[in-house]
Amino acid sequence: MASEEARKQYWRANLRLVAICLVIWFVVSFGFGVIFVDALNQIQVFGFDLGFWFAQQGSIVCFVALIFYYAWRMNKLDREHDVDEK
């Protein structure tokens, strides 16, 4: 069994990872798709305005990438704290 301090460190690392992923997702989906849309619409990507692209596709692509990153990073974190499934 892990000590109480080791469990707290693991949980803090987990919460930090979740918070970072949520901030990135918020910035991409709300920031790029809503707040900065006018500035980003000055740039064209595949014939579409970049702000429109982020609102329609970019936030979804970012979300899927964050899911894979989170799974990869949690597996690494589990091994570091010796709580992985062996």
Overview of the structural elements:
This protein has a two-stranded antiparallel ribbon with strand order 1-2. 78% of the residues lie in helices and 5% in strands. The mean pLDDT is 89. The protein is mainly alpha-helical. The chain has one domain (4-80).
Task: List descriptors.
78% helix, 2 strands, two-stranded antiparallel ribbon, single chain, mainly alpha, 86 residues, 3 helices
SSE arrangement:
Layout: H1 4-35, H2 37-40, E1 44-45, E2 48-49, H3 50-80
Antiparallel strand pairs: 1-2
Helix pairs in contact: 1-3
Helix-strand category: mainly alpha
Q: Give a short account of the largest sheet.
A: 2 strands, antiparallel
Gap between N and C termini: 15 Å
Run of helices and strands: HHEEH
Radius of gyration: 18 Å
Q: How many DSSP H or I helices?
A: 3
Strand order of the largest sheet: 1-2
> Spans with pLDDT under 50 lasting ≥5 residues?
none
Q: What is the total tally of β strands?
A: 2
Tally of separate domains? 1
Mean pLDDT: 89
Beta-strand content bin: under 5%
Short summary:
The protein has 86 residues and is mainly alpha-helical.
